[in-house]
Description:
Elements: H1 3-29, H2 42-51, H3 53-56, E1 63-73, E2 76-88, E3 93-100, H4 109-126, E4 131-138, E5 143-146
Parallel strand pairs: 3-4
Antiparallel strand pairs: 1-2, 2-3, 4-5
Amino acid sequence: xxxxxxxxxxxxxxxxxxxxxxxxTHAKLQFxxxxxxxxxxxxxxxxxxxxxxxxxxxxxxxxKPEVPVAGxxxxxxxxxxxxxxxxxxxxxxxxxxxxxxxxxTEKFRPKYIAQLREYKSLMSQIYPGYKTSCYILWLHDWxxxxx
Length: 147
């Protein structure tokens, strides 16, 4: 096997592993809560706690996992599921978190931004007068990105 073929197979295996691992982590995250008590996978709780208060908000008392939303965008019915949602009635702000498993964070960036714009549009219909803040949690390195 030549080096280029070997490297290609090695890269495909790494991508498959990253996708599998990301999906498994995504599935576990829906059951994680850090407030009022710690619930869920201990390793994920540790990562969330180490990431700081901005990420911790998405796993606190006000957070909701796997939230189905639907509405009309540009005359078309749209139905989606938000990975994590927090509605802060005091700050009049909706916080949206979407998990992504990609290692190459730029590969599908336009698609992800469009997805989060849809979420934002749907939330503005449900919560008129509220601001919306959208985030991506890159699961391969636990980096939280605000869009």
